[in-house]
Amino acid sequence: AVVSTQSTGHHEGQRCMLLALPHGTEPAMVASQTAVLQQGFITYLESKQAAGIINLTVPNQASPYVLHIFPPCDFTRVNMKRFCPELMEGAGDCGYLLIVIATV
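The structure assignment produced for this chain is given below.
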């Protein structure tokens, strides 16, 4: 999936939460994406007991953004129940990543 965003301002302490889920037009596509997500990202992050962290710089902005990638864990489940409880039921079955983009 491709996500495009445009920043209209920069305020310290702002954040955006995204949910990365497998997607496809056919069950086989969803199963394939689920396997890649599970084997390539979720298993690795869970084995390290850590979130992925990436510093993002934006041209013409002094402060960078920080991208945090969380596998299924207590933190993701609490936030999913809080902000999107309807997705919590199905997301846990297929695997997911919670992505937080924060300003610093």
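Interim note for the steering committee: The first strand starts at residue 15 and ends at 20. The helical segments are 27-48, 74-83, 85-94.
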